[in-house]
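Hey,
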Amino acid sequence: MSNKVIIFFKSMGRYWFLFLLLASLIVLFYHQQAAFIMGIITVSLYFLSFMPSLIFRFRLLKKMKKHAKIDDVTLARISKKRLKKIKNLMFKLANHQEKKRWLIIYFNKSYVFYAPSTVKKIRELLLEEGEKKDESQILSKLKAHDIKSKEELRAIKETLMKFKKLGNNK
């Protein structure tokens, strides 16, 4: 019985807000003051329902920034959260990273986070070397930053170009 109740509330999501709002509109016809109080409680509960996800996001970002490079599997193991939840959050962060100094790439069916110091070093080497230098020479200089393959370097370069972080303006 309890599993059915949990499934019901998970499927309902944040639509409970509409039910409480509808209930407060019905109460409005009979008692305005009670409806006003119900409306305030409903709106405040709705905004409070976003707090756990925001707290999770900020805590995860804090853990990610402690590492120069970290992938989603390691992050899931460190934070003791489900890999699916970590991947969903990293997907959202990867799509909205234009103004951020860190970098998230999707490489080998996994998300990889790079700290601002690592991104800065990569950008400097890519801008310094330009197109004239071979990727293997750039890769040899980046071994200290735990970049292991040419494919990973290409994925980083493509992501930097996609979000216009490779230019001299940042």
